[in-house]
């Protein structure tokens, strides 16, 4: 109880929670009152996905490489593939209750959360650049599976080359791999001397935070837009759908509980077990970032697949709305639980 009280009264925690909820409500008000047009959310999302989030992803890698940071980052990357394979297998449990299109949609929306649009801005607000770095590495597997397995499951077709293009040419993926390359090989890249407080220090010429701080200043401004843009767009999107109608569907609640509580709990237990046996051990920051990503509402692309291929379009929209609202509460709960586990020494 004392641990929970400490977490809930922490100024940084309260500030991040208040910022998230208040800006989402602001977006809701702006759209509901007609102060912004129906296309505002779409425009904000376009800026977010093509500019702000790539800048955030790239900025996170502009840091010195340390043995523990490198190991955790590499483990996050590998665990991403392990996690999504396990998620794919676990969701077959829905077969006991659902069949056909409903089964495909329940599985698809559970596997693929809004990790980039919804998760990363919250991770940045709560965990800073270290959390963002690990989250981006974990998220590479998500994009690989989303545009391959996800497309096949929703469409019933074979994987197409155009989806490979979507993976490779996605601005966030490009920024992530470019940043990861610089971060990982900075010791091997050509070095330049940079003036620091202690005198001079050698940095890789591509460590732009040191060699071109004026450039990274602009990148930093764009990266800082990620959270407010995402939260405003979420609020505006919520204002367009009837929550009253959505909550009447019991399958939406089954989905939301599975997506926001059960799946993150399974993965948390798995990460703790892996850590205890020394297999892909992750630290508190990495584990928290991954749980936040797993406790997000369904990915826009996944919902788009469902609508495009005429698979439970109404259910998908309702599930997206209800789980978006519940996700805010679920993430706060998970943050408290994880902070308590950290204080108890279970995850460090």
From TrEMBL:
**Primary residence:** membrane
Q: Which domain of life is it from?
A: Bacteria
- Tell me where in or outside the cell this protein is found: Membrane
Provide this UniProt record's keywords sorted from A to Z: Cell membrane, Membrane, Transmembrane, Transmembrane helix, Transport
Indicate how the chain sits in the lipid bilayer.
Multi-pass membrane protein
Example GO BP: transmembrane transport
Question: What are the TM regions of this chain, as residue ranges?
Answer: 13-31, 43-62, 74-94, 106-127, 133-155, 167-185, 218-239, 260-278, 284-307, 319-341
User: Could you name the Gene Ontology cellular component terms for this entry?
Assistant: membrane
Read off the InterPro entries from this record: Mem_transp_PIN-like (IPR004776)
Which is a Pfam family this sequence falls into?
Mem_trans
| Protein name, entry field | AEC family transporter
Give the organism, scientific name.
Erysipelothrix inopinata
